[in-house]
Write a structure and sequence with these properties.
Blueprint (H helix, E strand, L loop, with lengths): L4 H24 L5 H12 L2 H11 L1 E3 L4 E3 L1 H29 L2 H22 L3 H21 L1 H8 L8 H33 L4 H12 L49 E5 L5 E3 L1 H5 L4 E8 L10 E10 H8 L7 E6 L4 E5 L1 H4 L6 E6 L2 E2 L9 E3 L13 E7 L7 H4 L11 E6 L5 E2 L2 E10 L5 E8 L5 E2 L1 E2 L9 E9 L2 E11 L21 E7 L1
Parallel strand pairs: 3-12, 14-21
Antiparallel strand pairs: 1-2, 3-4, 5-6, 6-9, 7-8, 7-12, 9-10, 9-11, 13-15, 15-19, 16-17, 16-20, 18-19, 20-21
Length: about 525
């Protein structure tokens, strides 16, 4: 059989692998095809002059903040270039298969690993990001070994037997036929899947399009300069939607069509109610700055963010349905089946700040953050309050209901604990000796932060300067400058609320109701 059969086998198996990866990417995510994702990663890491040249060559579309080469040109270009590169790798892998079984597998796994790393670099670490690549590589490996089967048998069947020549030739013909059928069927199948792949996940894409075209009466808000400390390295005061932590049990976030969405408000109420999206938003939107955090956030962790949320106050809706006496909780249910049990009190409180949010930082809620509607209750951890893709609110009693997280080992109640965090200096950093800037963030939603104190190298607590805040539900930035000799140092931080509650030194685990302890950072001055 021809030597050319090996690279052909490599190519065909690669096409099937990439088609599977593409189809899964389309079905599971809102991302472009895997080539473009990897290309975007490479482009974002490329030296400035390459980016500039590409931008110049393609012409650009002025988006105001930055100049982005026209996507219509770039996507096919990156896809074609990446395909050529990938095809070359596939040919090489096919040639490797002639020599051994493990060399191609190693190369394939290597390509997969690079792909996963690039995607993590682009979109952050998440299972859903890795799934299409891993599945694609697995397919590539299996298909390659299947397609080269007849070729290997051919190699193994060397001359030297005393069989009649016609018999040997007949068997060779059979193997050739076998190979041709296998490559043709899989090659055509792979090409078909690649072309059809774009149709998978159509619903998700349609939902996102509707979302982006939604015209809600909301506006983005800039945080005031007075809310920020002027220390490089401190987290942005307003967390951009793309950087906002994502925490949910669903592997693929539910794609909810607005036209199909309904909210039920029922249970211990006088008048149960069912609302469409329009009926909900017609009831009037309010907006507020609020810090959301997770019970899973470790001391010093970053499962926390602050956004300008827009939505319908929950107390209005509960007043409309009329809560019956005896109720003390609300069971919220998501489209994905997730539930949480929330105390009734902050929901009926006109000053409680609880809302059914439809907007986040002036945009319709991103799908990952619960589009079309999610709950925000200032002062409570997400697992007992912040139900995403909300579809049902059942007024109930704690004794009668249970939320998802309780079954997973978390306490029934989830008030956010007083927390403070050092962001500058970064752990392990080396900074200039002399006056050293120390800064970070603290939060105690509802109560608000009255003071943040820092102790260096086990010394006395020093009061830091607090920036201003728009309200007590948002985090506060703090800063202090301390004179430090060259050498190793450790800074620790604690916060005190307006109610006089001090952040405790007692170290506890995340389970059952949130980690405690002081955040410490070790750094060096030179
Ligand atoms: N449907 C659904 N809603 C959910 C969750 C979930 O797993 N499913 N996780 C909750 C938890 S534990 C937190 S901390 C917040 C996180 O909200 P975010 O992803 O917008 O940051 O969502 C809450 N709402
Ligand atoms: Mo959470």
């Amino acid at each position: 059989m021809q030597r050319a059969a090996w690279p052909v086998a490599g190519l065909v198996s690669g096409v099937v692998g990439i088609a599977v990866s593409h189809a899964l990417t389309m079905a599971l995510t809102l991302r472009p095809n895997p080539f473009v994702s990897v290309g975007e990663f490479a482009a974002s890491r490329a030296p400035g002059w390459i980016q500039d040249t590409v931008t110049k060559l393609l012409g650009n579309r002025d988006t105001g903040a930055s100049e982005v080469p026209a996507a219509e040109v770039l996507e096919p270009l990156i896809t074609s270039l990446a395909f050529i590169g990938f095809a070359a790798v596939c040919v090489f892998v096919g040639l490797l298969a002639r020599r051994s079984w493990w060399q191609p597998v190693l190369a394939q796994a290597g390509v997969g690993l690079l792909g996963v790393l690039a995607l993590f670099g682009n979109y952050g670490f998440a299972v859903v990001t890795a799934v299409p690549v891993v599945a694609g590589v697995a397919t590539w490996i299996v298909v390659l070994s299947f397609v080269v089967g007849p070729l290997q048998r051919h190699l193994a069947a060397g001359p030297g037997t005393d069989e009649p020549l016609e018999k040997v030739a007949a068997r060779a013909r059979l193997r050739r036929r076998d190979f041709v059928i296998r490559t043709a069927v899989l090659g055509l199948g792979g090409a078909w899947l690649w072309l059809q792949g774009g149709r998978f996940g159509k619903r998700l894409r349609h939902v996102d399009e509707t979302r982006r075209l939604l015209n809600l009466p909301i506006r983005a808000r800039e945080p005031k300069p007075a809310w920020k400390v002027d220390v490089p390295g401190v987290e942005p005061w307003r967390t951009p939607n793309e950087d906002f932590f994502v925490q949910h049990t669903a592997i693929v976030p539910p794609a909810v069509e607005l036209s199909e969405w309904r909210l039920q408000i029922h249970g211990l109420v006088e008048q149960p109610m069912e609302l469409t999206y329009q009926e909900l938003t017609e009831r009037g939107l309010v907006s507020a700055w609020s810090t959301l955090t997770s019970v899973l956030n470790p001391v010093g962790g970053d499962l926390v963010g602050t956004a300008w949320w827009s939505g319908v106050p929950v107390h209005r809706l509960l007043a409309e349905v009329g809560v019956l006496p005896g109720a003390d909780a609300v069971l919220q249910t998501s489209v994905d089946g997730w539930t949480c049990l929330t105390p009734l009190e902050p929901l009926v409180d006109k000053q409680g700040g609880a809302m059914l949010a439809v907007g986040m930082n002036g945009e319709p809620l991103p799908i990952d953050h619960g589009y079309p509607v999610r709950t925000i209750v200032p002062g409570l951890y997400g697992h007992v309050s912040a139900c995403k893709w909300l579809t049902s609110i059942e007024v109930t009693r704690y004794v009668d209901a249970e939320g998802e997280s309780t079954r997973r080992g978390f306490a029934v109640e989830g008030p956010v604990k007083v927390t403070s965090r050092i962001e500058v200096p970064a752990p392990g950093a080396t900074v200039d000796a002399g006056m050293v800037a120390c800064a970070g963030t603290a939060w105690a939603p509802r109560a608000g932060i009255a003071a943040v104190q820092v102790a260096i190298d086990g010394g006395p607590w020093l009061d830091t300067r607090l920036a201003e805040v728009p309200n007590n539900d948002s985090w506060v930035q703090w800063e202090i400058s301390v004179e430090l000799e060259p050498g190793p140092h450790v800074a620790r931080v604690r916060a005190i609320t307006h109610l006089g509650e001090e952040q405790t030194a007692v170290v506890t685990d995340i389970r059952p109701d949130g980690a405690t302890g002081w955040h410490e950072v070790e750094f060096e001055t030179a």
